[in-house]
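Mods, move this if it's the wrong board.
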Amino acid sequence: MSKQIASTVDGMTQAQQDKLDEDLMECRTAHVLQVDAAYRASQGNAELYIDSDVSLVDCLRRRSLVPRDYTVSRFQAESESRIAMAGTGGTPEEFQAKLESAFSFDLDDPAVQTCVVSNDPVLFAHRLETWRPLG
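Not the wrong board. Structure tokens:
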């Protein structure tokens, strides 16, 4: 517990401390988490576009990760090309390389990753490993 919070609970009963903790959690849930989520979303979607394709392309352009003339139509064409590649065989590594080669931007670039995660995290679905908590 920090000194600042510790000084606020001095002299409180356990019931009062529990109520304070409950109120702080309720405030965080009702107010802070929404603001935090909006802030994080705005990092990759500054204009808060509803269409994820528009917001992703805007983010990539604003950060100079694609040419200024890169369009939503081009992104969608690259995405469709990626989907078409899903049917091709090969090793998992070859398959991943094919999926990522469909895009004209580097999915390994941290700035690109910020844009993608903020707008269309499904683009990274092929990179995810299955979580096996029990084995």
